[in-house]
Amino acid sequence: MPPEPSPSPSAPAAGPRRPPVLVRFALWAFAGVIGLTLLWTQASPWLSYPVAGLSHVALEQVVPMWVRSVHKRPGHIEVDTTVEVADPQAGGRRGEVTLDADPGRYAFGLPIFWALLLAAWGAARAPGRLQRALLGYVLLLPVQAFSLVMYLLMQLAGAAGFDVRTLRMEQWQVEAIVYGYQVGVLVLPTLAPVLVWLLLDRRFFTDVIVRGWQQTVMKRP
């Protein structure tokens, strides 16, 4: 009897399929935002201290008639103003308004920006992460200082009841403070880090994210 043919070698099993680049980017970004935000809560008093310094300079240049003195320490800024208002708790006695804030509350866009950089590396091993991380930190400082200044000015305007006589300014200037507060506190802290990332990582965004999205769309029936 002829010998039985030996079984042909089976084809090697295919390795695990990697998820699409868009999925990898989203997963890395989500994990990065969570992890870096947790680290940010511990490091923000020191990383946001330059924001307080820039805000100090801006206040003295923009509204010198209101600023008596500014005190800064990591995680806190306090502004003694020349604006006097009546204090109901003191029997209507007038006193000068003191403002205070935590600069880190208006610099939380930094971990969002760093998370996007990390996601670009995790999705496609994009190079130049450290340089972009440092440059983005510097570029975000003026935006974060603007947000902090607008919060302090809004706090002062509210303490004065938005009264133009007490604030010694025109009505349009008070309205500009309200508008600046809405943009600087409600919009920029989350929008600015995304825009800075798109500026610094535009090649990765175009070559990887946009192309990956186009390929996903083309594969749909």
Structural account:
There is one protein chain. The protein is α+β, with helices and mostly antiparallel strands. The protein is built from eight helices and three strands; from the N terminus they run H-H-E-E-E-H-H-H-H-H-H. A three-stranded antiparallel sheet has the order 1-2-3, with helices on one face. Strand 1 and strand 2 form a beta hairpin. Helix 3 packs antiparallel against helix 4, helix 3 runs parallel beside helix 7 and helix 4 runs antiparallel to helix 6. The longest helix has 31 residues. The chain starts with 20 loop residues before the first helix and ends with a helix.
Number of helices: 8
Number of strands: 3
Query: What percent of residues adopt helix (DSSP H or I)?
Result: 55-70%
The strands making up the biggest β-sheet line up spatially as 1-2-3
Which features would summarize this protein structure in a list?
221 residues, elongated, three-stranded antiparallel beta sheet, single chain
